[in-house]
């Protein structure tokens, strides 16, 4: 992530430098550490990010996660190709729930809240391909309610300039990785041993973490912000 983008994500708040997990002094907001987890379908992105989030949360860090749903994007693109602008079908909410019914009735946004939790859904949200804009909005909302995150972790958005971890577990995943030329690739995570294919990963000149090294990867990501 560029310094300009990180500056914008401060959303006008005063910067308070602190170590991860250290309390934020009143009126100070630290720009969050940002990273992307990318890879092919079923490579293990969600499993890895779940593990990272659990590790960071156990350390007392507040973690916000952004998820890109490529299936919905594909449905929209297919509809445009056929000249059908119908809304894509997704499985984000329980079928028949009140929020789904409101959206189907024409509500531009729905928010359900209770028990100290809330869920906001925008029916029309331009710019969902722009990770910086999405993260900026999420950060502003969380800061407004007094729960600014220490870490912003995204699954997807391979074309962004955020620091990335690529997930591979099959030789075809390595083929994908070699062909993508990902910007700001910092590390590769391999949940399974790939033997010969790992030699091709090593040729990319990036640190390769294996399944048992998830904790080390989580700690290393926290240090990436020093130069971002």
From TrEMBL:
State the Pfam families in the record. Answer: MobB
Molybdopterin-guanine dinucleotide biosynthesis protein B (MobB) domain location, by residue? 36-72, 91-188
- Map out region (Disordered) in residue numbers: 1-26
Q: Which PANTHER family match?
A: MOLYBDOPTERIN-GUANINE DINUCLEOTIDE BIOSYNTHESIS ADAPTER PROTEIN, MOLYBDOPTERIN-GUANINE DINUCLEOTIDE BIOSYNTHESIS ADAPTER PROTEIN-RELATED
Q: What is this protein called?
A: Molybdopterin-guanine dinucleotide biosynthesis protein B
